[in-house]
Amino acid sequence: MTSYIWICTISYTCVVHKILVGLFYVFLCSQSGIYTFPYPLQPPPFPAQYNPADLSHVSVPQEELDIRPKVSSLLSRLVNYTNITQGAKEHEEAESTGMLHVSPNMGTLMGVYLPCLQNIFGVILFLRLTWIVGTAGIVQSFFIVLMCCSCTMLTAISMSAIATNGVVPAGGAYFMISRSLGAEFGGAVGICFYLGTTFAAAMYILGAIEIFLKYLVPQAAIFHASDPHGGDSAILNNMRVYGTICLSLMAVVVFVGVKYVNKLASLFLACVIISIISIYAGAIKSIFQPPNFSICMLGNRTLVRDQFDVCSKVVLDGNVTVPSQLWKNFCSSGNISSPQCDDYFNQNNVTEIQGIPGLASGIIRDNMWGDYLEKGQILEKAGLPSVNVHGAVESIGLYVSADIATSFTLLVGIFFPSATGIMAGSNRSGDLKDAQKSIPIGTILAITTTTLVYFSSVVLFGACIEGTVLRDKFGDAVSKNLVVGTLSWPSPWVIVIGSFFSTVGAGLQSLTGAPRLLQAIAKDNIIPFLRVFGHGKANGEPTWALLLTGLIAELGILIASLDMVAPILSMFFLMCYLFVNLACAVQTLLRTPNWRPRFKYYHWALSFLGMSMCLALMFISSWYYAIVAMCIAGMIYKYIEYQGAEKEWGDGIRGLSLSAARYALLRLEHGPPHTKNWRPQVLVLLKLDEDLHVKYPRLLTFVSQLKAGKGLTIVGSVIQGQFLDSYGETQAIKNMMEIERVKGFCQVVVASKVREGIAHLIQSCGLGGMKHNTVVMGWPYGWRQSEDPRAWKTFINTVRCTTAAHLALMVPKNVSFYPSNHERFTEGTIDVWWIVHDGGMLMLLPFLLKQHKVWRKCKMRIFTVAQMDDNSIQMKKDLAMFLYQLRIEAEVEVVEMHDSDISAYTYERTLMMEQRSQMLRQMRLSSAEREREAQLVKDRHSLVRMGSLFHVITIRRHRVPRWSTRLRATVSFVWFCPRDQSNVRRMHTAVKLNEVIVNKSHDARLVLLNMPGPPRNTDGDENYMEFLEVLTEGLERVLLVRGGGREVITIYS
């Protein structure tokens, strides 16, 4: 028997090329325009000097020869047909000739249609489609095919649009997605496509081993079941051993030379075509003469046919009735008169029915609807009489039973790989003469052809084959024959041998294509840890990528079940197709100027429909596999985003980001943000040294801790000079921002004067609603010793500019002592000295800092100042209640000071006397306090600016304690008193307040203070700087804060 099989195999191989070449010779001659066959063929009267290669004497225009080439050239292409992706064959040629020469000359038929056809048709058609039809029924099987093929058709339309939008070099699907959606999406989907192709190799190898062990050489099995329940483990172990051997041999073939795979490509294609033709021929023949494959039924249960010879309980041996082999299988005694048999065997009759009734039998009515089975459930035929009794457990192995539990979703996942392979044309784009024409036509025609074959196969299988045989996955009921082979003509061996060769060929092609895809991803250098796989042999062959592909494919081999591997690769292919549709939809909706595909029959709605179908099929097939595949793609995406190489490919995601940013900016223009949404949008003013290096990098560190990547950060600097000489000096700031991990924007202004440049930055930074509301700048160290007063004059001028622009201001003093991002405070406090209510800035900033890991363990303390005649206990209760309503955890402490210590404080902004009286009434001051405040104003020769009435009213509306507004009325500085009185009083106040702050907060990690406004008259600038120095003396880290004139924190949700 084995020798007969090998003889058939050799004969089949030899005949295949002759049949294929003959058929295509007739077809091509009839289409070439050179020879026609209207009459019987006779040799033409050629002249004596006739040269077969010279067609000048034939009246055929040159244009006709270009369009419809000579028969000899087409036959040569057919014989040299290859389904290997571009690059593989050329590398082999380069190895032998020493030079790389590629001339793209493949057309639609040879370059796209046939490769797609061969990749789409595969192991599922021959090994599982009959089982799917029997389990799901014709109607549901039709729906499964419709869903899967519609998904691939919509994906092919999107792919055609992308492929015709310019030249598509080597890389196929990976190149299209990466250049359309960016490096992140391209890398994630490229890895998914690679994993799908690798697991496809494992699936094809498992299919080939299943055919080999089940139908070709069953005697080759190494492991055998010791009991009826151990059959599954023995089969899986055999699949693992032989699968590993087959994978190793294929990897060696691919490593030694792709040219050997290339030479067998036409054989593999012929196997697929002849096998499919034999199925149709057998279906037509079954109308007149159905194949003789009978199945034996015990009651309504299907029996394993190869365990007995005659489908009967007894047989005649001469004139004597003796027990049959079937009787002996069910009975422990061979005596008919006193049998000890299985109960079900005793009470049910044995019948024999036709396994292949034929196309005209009407069996299609019985196969219209499905019959899903649980694992171990015996296959039964409805309509046959049966006595339902339990049989012996030992007899289970004699019946045909389901090896796995079946469901509609499982069948979808198993069938979908038979619809993949549509990328074969795009993978060969570099070999095509006109890729923009061939890829759409060839791919869509191939999908249409395969879809029609699948639809017709579903109908033919349901109309020709008995339902119990269809549900018999391994053909146990028909003597271990391949079920689809029982229908084929002229022999079941046509399908068995043809499917074996086609699956081996598909496995070789997958093992050839997957390493090259991984090599393309590695050479793009978007995933750093894959760089090693970009190297290979001297001619470019991906040796390391082949090794990794073999190891991953071995994982699929170890699963050892075709039904388990198929849903895995379905997930990866569906993920790839989903992003192809997404890429087309994004490009279409964005209407980018470069989006001009030659293929016009696409629409964004079709792409979204295809994307939705891919996502739905993923979760229909296997929701847990879908989640795993999406997590893998998501992790690769984030890895490339975080650590991958920066690539600017003009992708659609950048255009999408621009459109989204424009939409968001227009929405922000509608009005200022609500108090609940307020956060510091920071403009950081950096100072550069003579070498254009950042002078105080810890300023950026502090901002990164404050922002934690949220909101807007603009880092600005001013270069003194002329714009034409100094423009573009932003690299130092960008490098420092990357080091400190500050996510934001950089802007450098070149101006003749630094103060003018800073004013320009404060006025013009930002865009629309995305403008800064807070300015951060450093303290002018060494201003006392500086001979040039411009540094601290610029500082004060900047304070005035921020006040005029109603911006908040933060000045970190002693910023070099601020912690780096790698330090962490495990204890300590952040002390807030709340003297002036500034809209809540002092409350909000510590809360924001504590969100960062550096300051997270620090506690917050709030100090406020009271006069001796104030009720300190009530003030503390009011402040604690206020903090409770703000949802801020902090310790509260009230510090009492004498009137003389704080008498230098007054209102912050100037008001008329009437407004001042109204302010005092709203603050509910006592008459004595009102007289004291009036006397204070009378003693001073000018008024200083004070907060507008709006802010006090707002404070009261937010239930700020009465003492805080009173303190607001006692906290600004008078810089216009006579020099002999004002300076003494001011310094006295600063010294006393500094003593209290140092006494309470000398161990604090950070001290936040209200920053008073500068004097209106520039004559007091130096005194202002002295006051701030005295006020902050002895404190290690100080943050001076000045509000921007609006509420930034609220008690409401």
Summarize the helices and strands and which ones pair or pack:
Elements: H1 2-32, H2 62-67, H3 71-79, H4 88-97, H5 108-120, H6 123-127, H7 129-163, H8 173-181, H9 183-216, H10 231-256, H11 258-263, H12 265-288, E1 294-298, E2 301-302, E3 314-317, E4 320-323, H13 325-330, H14 343-347, E5 350-354, H15 408-415, H16 424-427, H17 435-464, H18 467-470, H19 483-487, H20 492-524, H21 543-559, H22 562-590, H23 604-621, H24 623-643, H25 652-668, E6 682-686, H26 698-707, E7 713-720, H27 723-726, H28 731-739, E8 745-751, H29 754-764, E9 774-777, H30 790-804, E10 808-813, E11 829-833, H31 841-849, E12 859-867, H32 872-885, E13 891-897, H33 899-902, E14 905-906, H34 913-922, H35 927-939, H36 949-957, H37 962-968, E15 972-973, H38 979-1001, E16 1006-1010, H39 1021-1031, E17 1038-1042
Parallel strand pairs: 6-7, 6-9, 7-8, 9-10, 11-12, 11-16, 12-13, 16-17
Antiparallel strand pairs: 1-2, 1-5, 3-4, 10-17, 14-15
Helix pairs in contact: 1-3, 1-12, 5-17, 7-15, 7-17, 7-22, 7-23, 8-9, 8-22, 9-10, 9-20, 9-21, 9-22, 9-24, 10-20, 10-21, 12-17, 12-20, 15-22, 15-23, 20-21, 22-23, 22-24, 22-25, 23-24, 29-30, 38-39
Membrane topology: Multi-pass membrane protein
Family: Belongs to the SLC12A transporter family. K/Cl co-transporter subfamily.
Main location: membrane
What does this structure look like?
- Belongs to the SLC12A transporter family. K/Cl co-transporter subfamily.
- This is Solute carrier family 12 member 4.
- One of its GO terms (biological process) is cell volume homeostasis.
- With 1053 residues, the chain is of the alpha/beta class.
- It is built from 39 helices and 17 strands.
- The strands form four sheets. A ten-stranded mixed sheet has the order 8-7-6-9-10-17-16-11-12-13, with helices on both faces.
- β16 (1006-1010), α39 (1021-1031) and β17 (1038-1042) form a beta-alpha-beta unit.
- The two termini are 84 Å apart.
- The relative contact order is 0.09.
- Mean pLDDT is 77; it is low at 1-67, 86-102, 903-928 and 930-980.
